[in-house]
Amino acid sequence: MTDDAFRQVQAGAFGGAAAEYERGRPPYPPQAVDWLLPRSPRRVLDLGAGTGKLTRLLRDRDVEVLAVEPSPGMRQELTRVLPEVAVLAGSAEEIPLDDGAVDAVLVAQAWHWVDVGRAVPEVARVLSAGGSLGLVWNVRDDREPWVARLGQILRTSTKRDMNTAAPQVGPPFGAVERFDVEWTHHLTPGAVIDLVASRSYVITLPADERAAVLADVRALLDTHPDLAGRPRIALPYVTRCSRATLPP
Known about the structure:
The protein is α/β, with parallel strands linked by helices.
């Protein structure tokens, strides 16, 4: 399968697990949003908004927020949890906004799915002069032994590199800046299962292989000394932020 075909299949899978995504995926630390929005924008686009994990942080700021999301299932879930936010069908390659419509574009947990060659000029088109593109990923911190074991289970299901450390952007944007935030997300064991079940490569596995992955994760939760019997689990993350700006 070509990279483009793989990207389309995997990215298109999320709608079928939107509820699991909403229950299991972590939010983003406020420090990340503070850094990703270096000036005081009036209108911000959450591009590839999913179920609104980042959108709700933007909503709580003094900005007008728009959300664009390609998956009908994810849009439906976003509208359910954030009925006050305008949600449009679209993608990074085809953004349904006018030229210069927003002052900042943020892309959370999604830039690795886009066709960068098409997305970069399209994002630049909808940005005002001097506007910024912010990219952000929550990455599990596998310096914690049980998190490393979880990663081993999941890597049996995928070999895709999200390239969160050095994402591609390029002209007409300037140099890409980088900022990391270390933090801890507290969630239930059931939410850990939802987290795993919402991964695109788990969603698209054959039913028996998917069941086997989820069974391995349940076994980890039931037997690891740092996890067994605990009603809440501390999952450490490193939130990787990248930022690039258009010329004024």
